[in-house]
Amino acid sequence: MSDSDQPVTQRIIVLVSDSCDSNAALEAAARMAGRLGAELQALFVEDVNLLRSAGLPFAREIGLTSATVRPMSPEAVEQQLRAQAERSRALLERIAQRMNIRSSFRVSRGNVESEALGSARPEDMLIICRADHRRRGGSRLSDREGRIVSAAHCTVMLVGERQPEENRAVLVLYANTARGRRSLALAASMARDAAQPLVLLLPPGSEAEHDRLAASAREWAQTHNLQLRFRELGHVDAAALLSALRQEEGDSLVIPRDAAALRDPHDRLLLDEVDTPVVVVP
Question: Which CATH number goes with the domain that contains 255?
Answer without folding.
Answer: 3.40.50.620
